[in-house]
C-alpha cells in the first residue's frame, strides 16, 4: 500500500498566501495542495468528522469517532492529536476521506485501509492475508518480557525465543526490540502471512529469523536443532471454537485469515500442537506462554497440567479482566502422560 498523500488541510490560525504575496497558482488551477482555494473547494474538517462518525456508527463500527479521526490523520498526513488545529480540508482530500469511510462502513478493517497496525512500540505493515495484531496480545508480551528480565532471566543473557504462529511478526519483533541481545525465531505456516512477516522484519530491521513451517507436521531442521535449548516459546495461535464462525464481527470473519482464527471444535486444536512442539524445544525450566480465548481460562491450564511435562502452570487475565493466556515452565519429564 502506498503511503498517505501530503497534508491537504488548512491550519487553524495560519494565514493563507494571497496573490501578490508569494508564489500563486496558475488561474483555474485544481491542485489540491494549492494555498489559494475558493471556499467552495474546502470542507470544514469538524463537520466532516461529525458526518463520518455518524455514518460509521450507523454501520455498527465499534469506535466510530476514533476511526474517523484516524482516517483523517492518515489522509492528511498529520498526527491524530493535531487534527484540532485544522479548519478545512481540500476537495481532493475530502473525496479520498469519503472513499475510505465508505469502505470502513462496509466493515473493512481500519488497519487494511491505512496499511498499518500499531503494536507496543512498533508500527507494523498489514493487509489482506495476515491476522491484525490485537491490543490484548500486548499484555501477553508484557508478561513474558517481565518474566525473562526478572531475577531468573537476568542470569541468562541473550535469551533464545521462538514465536509460534507468528503472523505479522508482532510478538517476535517486539521481543527483538525490547530484549537486547535476544535470538528470536518466528514460525508461520500460511504463505500469505509469511510475506507480511518477512516484510515487517525487513521494514523494522530487527534481528528476527523467519521460518515458513507447519508445526503440526515434521519440524524443519532449522527448528529441531534448537531442541532443549530455547528459553521462551510464545504463541498466539488460532483459538476460536468452530461454533463461533457466525458470531464474530465482520472485520474478523470476513477479513482475518480463517487459518489464523479457528482452532477446532473446542478452539484448542492448535494449542495442543503448540504444547507438544514447546515440550521438544524448551530447555528444562524454559517458559511457555500461549494466548487463548476468554472461554479457555480453565481448559487451557488443565491441558498443560494433564500433559505432565509442565510446572508452575497458571492462567492470567488481560487488562480488561478477561482470561487471556496460560503459562508454564518445562519440567523434567520428557514424555507426556499417556
TrEMBL record:
Provide the Methyltransferase small domain boundaries.
Answer: 161-242
| EC number(s) recorded for this UniProt protein | 2.1.1.297
Tell me the function of this protein.
Answer: Methylates the class 1 translation termination release factors RF1/PrfA and RF2/PrfB on the glutamine residue of the universally conserved GGQ motif.
Q: Which Pfam families match?
A: MTS (PF05175), PrmC_N (PF17827)
Q: State the PROSITE patterns in the record.
A: N6_MTASE
Query: Which domain of life does the UniProt lineage start with?
Result: Bacteria
Protein name (record)? Release factor glutamine methyltransferase
Region annotation (Disordered) ranges: 1-37
Quote the record's binding site residues for S-adenosyl-L-methionine.
188, 236
Is Methyltransferase a UniProt keyword of this protein? yes
Amino acid at each position: 500500500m502506498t503511503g498517505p498523500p501530503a497534508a491537504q488541510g488548512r491550519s487553524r490560525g495560519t494565514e493563507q498566501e494571497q496573490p501578490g504575496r508569494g508564489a500563486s497558482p496558475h488561474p483555474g488551477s485544481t491542485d489540491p495542495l494549492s494555498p489559494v482555494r475558493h471556499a467552495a473547494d474546502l470542507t470544514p474538517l469538524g463537520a466532516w468528522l461529525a458526518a463520518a462518525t455518524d455514518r460509521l456508527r450507523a454501520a455498527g463500527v465499534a469506535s466510530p469517532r476514533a476511526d474517523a479521526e484516524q482516517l483523517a490523520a492518515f489522509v492528511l498526513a498529520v498526527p491524530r492529536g493535531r487534527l484540532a488545529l485544522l479548519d478545512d480540508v481540500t476537495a481532493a482530500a475530502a473525496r479520498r476521506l469519503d472513499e475510505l469511510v465508505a469502505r470502513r462502513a462496509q466493515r473493512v478493517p481500519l488497519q487494511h485501509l491505512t496499511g498499518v497496525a500499531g503494536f507496543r512500540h512498533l508500527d507494523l505493515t498489514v493487509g489482506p492475508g495476515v491476522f491484525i495484531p490485537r491490543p490484548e496480545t500486548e499484555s501477553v508480551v508484557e508478561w513474558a518480557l517481565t518474566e525473562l528480565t526478572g531475577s531468573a532471566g537476568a542470569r541468562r543473557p541473550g535469551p533464545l525465543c521462538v514465536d509460534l504462529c507468528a503472523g505479522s511478526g508482532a510478538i517476535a519483533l517486539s521481543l527483538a526490540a525490547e530484549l537486547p541481545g535476544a535470538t528470536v525465531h518466528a514460525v508461520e505456516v500460511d504463505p500469505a502471512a509469511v510475506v507480511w512477516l518477512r516484510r515487517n522484519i525487513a521494514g523494522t530491521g530487527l534481528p528476527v529469523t523467519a521460518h515458513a513451517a507447519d508445526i503440526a507436521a515434521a519440524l524443519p531442521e532449522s527448528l529441531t536443532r534448537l531442541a532443549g535449548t530455547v528459553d521462551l516459546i510464545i504463541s498466539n495461535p488460532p483459538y476460536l471454537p468452530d461454533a463461533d464462525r457466525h458470531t464474530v464481527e465482520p472485520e474478523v470473519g470476513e477479513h482475518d485469515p480463517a487459518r489464523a482464527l479457528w482452532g477446532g471444535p473446542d478452539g484448542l486444536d492448535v494449542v495442543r500442537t503448540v504444547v507438544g512442539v514447546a515440550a521438544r524445544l524448551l530447555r528444562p525450566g524454559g517458559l511457555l506462554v500461549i494466548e487463548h480465548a476468554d472461554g479457555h481460562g480453565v481448559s487451557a491450564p488443565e491441558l498443560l497440567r494433564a500433559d505432565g511435562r509442565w510446572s508452575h502452570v497458571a492462567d492470567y487475565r488481560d487488562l480488561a479482566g478477561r482470561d487471556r493466556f496460560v503459562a508454564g515452565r518445562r519440567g523434567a519429564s520428557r514424555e507426556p502422560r499417556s
